[in-house]
Write a structure and sequence with these properties.
The complex is a heterodimer of chains A (about 110) and B (about 110). Chain A is mainly beta. Chain A is about 0% helix and about 50% strand. Classes of the chains: A mainly beta (about 110), B mainly beta (about 110).
Amino acid sequence: NAGVTQTPKFQVLKTGQSMTLQCAQDMNHEYMSWYRQDPGMGLRLIHYSVGAGITDQGEVPNGYNVSRSTTEDFPLRLLSAAPSQTSVYFCASSKGPSAYEQYFGPGTRLTVT
Amino acid sequence: SQQGEEDPQALSIQEGENATMNCSYKTSINNLQWYRQNSGRGLVHLILIRSNEREKHSGRLRVTLDTSKKSSSLLITASRAADTASYFCATHRYSGAGSYQLTFGKGTKLSVIP
């Protein structure tokens, strides 16, 4: 199993550009989530999904959209990038709700100039 | 808002010594999880302890949970250079409106000197 994969690994955007961060898992996990990690801030939950077709907001959802059309994929869309969105983004999945151990992808390092 | 807070923020020890990290939280939880993150990598799950458990072991790891003090500790015995990483606690709790969330602390950066 590849586990949780994320693409791209690195990305530089200009302010106002949009892009999609890809996340896929091959473990047939129902629960998937997106976090951002900033220095000294730990991980903060952006959006999560408890199954295909069901998504909900986390702690810091503004400026991001998600959709879950399949069990495997959970893309994160930045609508209009801002310098405040410079961060490292992690996708995670688990076999059940967030009570279960989370499997993390390797991360995407995003810089917005 | 930050639910879990690790202490200390940074810890430096010699190889072979034990490392202890603490996590405090504010509201009642369903479970508490510890994760490790090597530099530039994703987080890796280490151990999960439920609110009705007091202690759990996994290899060289020992986790305790004191719900009356709202705190947990992670002990790594006989540390190795490969244990150098950041360690995060994450609390699973009810967040309202029928939802549950896993909230991470800011982490303890452990350096094990060979």
